[in-house]
């Protein structure tokens, strides 16, 4: 039982990790390459979840819903880039934060005006609503889909960055954007594409999370904070760093939440462990980030050396 | 109408009607109307306005004016709103007052001014016990009540080993405490999770491994949707009875649907009650707002009817605040509450039934079924600490 429980917890950590990766990939690219702080990334996640809720609700097909979420993310990402973000690249980081925080409020209010404050219903995809038995333990089948999609995106983005011309420009742009621009590459177009790609991935994360979470206005903010932790640990601008860091954060958080309170009971009374355990477990990823910042401020897996 | 005009008119009316003041009744309504718990505040407001509308916009025969404010679930904002209602708007009564933390922050000015205040969503233990005041009421519930009902239900049903879960903050601990006050069996484990945690897969795996007879959780709002969905997706809803308070309710049920089927909730109201006027309330609410009402809406509705009786008792003269507060207290006993038997205890909190409802699927429609009344005409555990002053 203990082994199968540990296995289930490792799966939980992996699944949380890949979900974080979908969010972190876009955020780290935009932050690392365009040096743009995008707090509205969580809003794109929320829009993805709403797109799935609406389209799956109307058509009954989760696949169509996920496609709609990708399309929504891409279109909204492109619009955002051309209307707001592209005007802010040259400005200070504080302006980025201010402007994108405004966008967060805007998107939260818009969804509330259109769909109301009540959370929306999203059905599990047909055929994945059951559970899978692993060593006498039941595990929700849908969570395997999340893991599969997350890993597929990780492989795809690794290929895109390391094996294609666009990827080469992205890597070059993250080191020296001025030089890439001087060589005649349309850096503005590249930026717009990257931003839209990041937005689409965020929307995909929202779509994948929609059947297991409460789809409601403001759902993007809590997850954004963890995503920022991930990109700091992984090294800003590094997609592979974001992947490893997302898995590390996912596992740390899940295993910490599970085993830290139990561990504390060995040393302290049950009451104290019950009070301190969860508090400490919720701090764990931030402690990890603090340690990483102290020891390796450039992140564990930085995009480029020096 | 500004205050001076109102006074002039009142004076005129006083002369004309020889002693009967016909001023408007001014109500300040505050609730969380934006953010993650906006659905809760909106239901209270809609319920209140529905009752007011049914009375032709009048309370106790006097034209009523309702000022609405959004507290955003922020205590400091609740405090400001209470000050605004008391000092600037000079309202006759404040209704709503949001969640416990917001209510507690709003109290100082309300207590000082003596203005009648009627909470429709909170009944913190302090207010029920040592900190009770004559002009502050909760028409809703004492916070522990629903959890106590579930504890009693678990005890009566004969569950031997129960697993408890709640968010790691004061209310979470209060609910677990309330459950344990009436449950005498073994508590397998008490798990406190982060506030607003989205994913419970790790905790659900632990819970599954512990194999208890039943689980009791308190996860309000979006947290409840997350937990119940994931609990059901892990295939546990068929194996393990899930008891809850403020987790599966009218505001979360539309997004849970089948995932909530089988769960049992402790509550003061649900659509399954056959109390007088309940059917009409559900129908008119559904027609007007296009959704089913929740317990929050029912309490808002009761609050308006309570004020109607109280204003009538003082003949529309709400200027004597102490007399008006006393009228609200006695109005409680006359209120035909949607929840069944209702009256105010000496601490101004309700003595009422706490029910157990099960979410069931009837011909594809998800609704609630009454399982019993674990705590009939229940008074809270703190009333004894409330000393008259």
Automatic annotation (TrEMBL), chain A:
Q: Which InterPro entries match?
A: ABC_transp_permease, BCAA_transport_permease
Query: Primary place of residence?
Result: membrane
Annotated membrane-spanning segments are 16-37, 44-64, 70-89, 96-115, 141-161, 189-213, 225-251, 272-295
Q: What Pfam families would the database entry show?
A: BPD_transp_2 (PF02653)
Membrane topology designation: Multi-pass membrane protein
The record's keywords, sorted A to Z, are: Amino-acid transport, Cell membrane, Membrane, Transmembrane, Transmembrane helix, Transport
The organism's place on the tree of life at top rank: Bacteria
Q: According to its UniProt record, where is this protein located?
A: Cell membrane
Which residue windows are coiled coil? none
Q: Which family does it belong to?
A: Belongs to the binding-protein-dependent transport system permease family. LivHM subfamily.
Protein name, as recorded: Branched-chain amino acid ABC transporter permease
The source organism is Aromatoleum diolicum
UniProtKB/TrEMBL annotation, chain B:
Give the protein family.
Belongs to the leucine-binding protein family.
Q: Which UniProt keywords apply?
A: Signal
Gene3D superfamilies named in the record? 3.40.50.2300
| Source organism of this protein record | Aromatoleum diolicum
> Where does the secretion signal sit in this chain?
1-23
Name the record gives this protein: ABC transporter substrate-binding protein
Give the source's domain of life in one word.
Answer: Bacteria
Classification via SUPFAM superfamilies: Periplasmic binding protein-like I
Q: Report the residue ranges that make up the Leucine-binding protein domain in this protein.
A: 25-362
Which Pfam families does its entry note? Peripla_BP_6
């Amino acid at each position: 039982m203990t082994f199968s429980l540990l296995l289930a917890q490792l799966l939980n950590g992996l699944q949380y990790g890949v979900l974080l990766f979908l969010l972190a990939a876009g955020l780290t690219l935009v932050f690392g390459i365009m040096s743009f702080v995008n707090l509205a990334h969580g809003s794109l996640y929320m829009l993805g979840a709403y797109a799935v809720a609406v389209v799956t609700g109307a058509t009954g097909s989760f696949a169509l819903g996920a496609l709609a979420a990708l399309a929504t993310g891409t279109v909204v990402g492109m619009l955002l880039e051309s209307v707001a973000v592209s005007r802010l690249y040259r400005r200070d980081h504080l302006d980025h934060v201010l402007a994108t925080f405004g966008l967060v409020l805007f998107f939260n209010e818009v969804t509330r005006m259109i769909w109301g404050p009540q959370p929306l219903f999203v059905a599990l995809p047909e055929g994945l609503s059951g559970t899978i038995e692993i060593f006498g333990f039941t595990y929700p089948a849908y969570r395997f889909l999340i893991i599969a999609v997350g890993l597929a995106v990780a492989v795809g983005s690794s290929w895109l960055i390391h094996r294609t011309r666009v990827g080469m420009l992205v890597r070059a742009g993250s080191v020296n954007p001025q030089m890439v621009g001087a060589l005649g590459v349309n850096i503005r177009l590249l930026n717009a594409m990257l931003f839209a790609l990041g937005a689409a991935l965020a929307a995909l994360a929202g779509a994948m999370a929609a059947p297991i979470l409460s789809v409601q206005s403001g759902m993007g903010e809590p997850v954004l904070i963890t995503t920022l932790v991930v990109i700091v640990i992984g090294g800003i601008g590094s997609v592979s760093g974001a992947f490893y860091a997302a898995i590390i954060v996912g596992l740390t958080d899940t295993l910490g939440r599970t085993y830290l309170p139990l561990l504390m009971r060995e040393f302290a009374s049950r009451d104290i462990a019950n009070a301190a355990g969860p508090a400490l477990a919720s701090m764990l990823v931030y402690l990890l980030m603090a340690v990483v910042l102290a020891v390796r401020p450039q992140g564990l897996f930085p995009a480029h050396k020096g | 109408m500004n205050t001076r005009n109102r006074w002039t008119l009142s004076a005129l009316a006083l002369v004309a009607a020889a002693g009967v003041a016909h001023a408007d009744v001014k109500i300040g309504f505050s609730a969380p109307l934006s953010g993650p718990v906006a659905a809760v505040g909106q239901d209270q407001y809609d319920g209140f306005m529905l009752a007011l509308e049914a009375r032709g916009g009048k309370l106790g025969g006097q034209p009523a004016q309702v000022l609405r404010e959004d507290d955003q679930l922020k205590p400091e904002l609740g405090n400001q709103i209470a000050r605004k209602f008391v000092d600037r708007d000079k309202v006759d009564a404040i209704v709503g007052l949001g969640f416990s933390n917001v209510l507690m922050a709003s109290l100082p000015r309300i207590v000082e001014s003596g203005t009648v205040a009627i909470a429709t969503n909170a009944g913190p233990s302090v207010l029920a016990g040592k900190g009770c005041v004559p002009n502050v009421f909760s028409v809703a519930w004492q916070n522990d009540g629903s959890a106590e009902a579930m504890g009693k239900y678990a005890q009566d049903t004969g569950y031997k080993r129960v697993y408890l879960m709640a968010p790691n903050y004061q209310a979470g601990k209060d609910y677990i405490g309330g459950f344990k006050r009436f449950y005498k069996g073994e508590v397998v484990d008490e798990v406190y999770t982060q506030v607003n945690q989205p994913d419970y897969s790790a905790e659900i795996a632990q819970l599954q491994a512990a194999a208890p007879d039943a689980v009791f959780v308190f996860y309000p709002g979006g947290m409840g949707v997350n937990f119940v969905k994931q609990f059901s997706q892990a295939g546990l809803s068929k194996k393990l009875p899930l008891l809850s308070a403020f987790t599966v309710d009218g505001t979360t049920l539309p997004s849970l649907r089948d995932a909530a089927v089988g769960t049992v909730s402790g509550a003061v109201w649900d659509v399954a009650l056959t109390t007088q006027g309940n059917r009409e309330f559900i129908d008119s609410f559904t027609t007007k707002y296009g959704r089913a009402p929740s317990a929050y809406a029912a309490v808002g509705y009761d609050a308006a009817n309570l004020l109607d009786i109280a204003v009538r008792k003082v003949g529309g003269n709400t200027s004597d605040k102490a007399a008006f507060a006393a009228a609200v207290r006695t109005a409680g006993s006359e209120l035909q509450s949607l929840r069944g038997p209702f009256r105010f205890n000496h601490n101004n909190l309700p003595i009422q039934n706490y029910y157990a409802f099960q979410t069931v699927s009837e011909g594809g429609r998800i609704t609630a079924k009454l399982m019993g009344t674990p705590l009939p005409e229940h008074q809270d555990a703190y009333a004894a600490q409330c000393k008259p002053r």
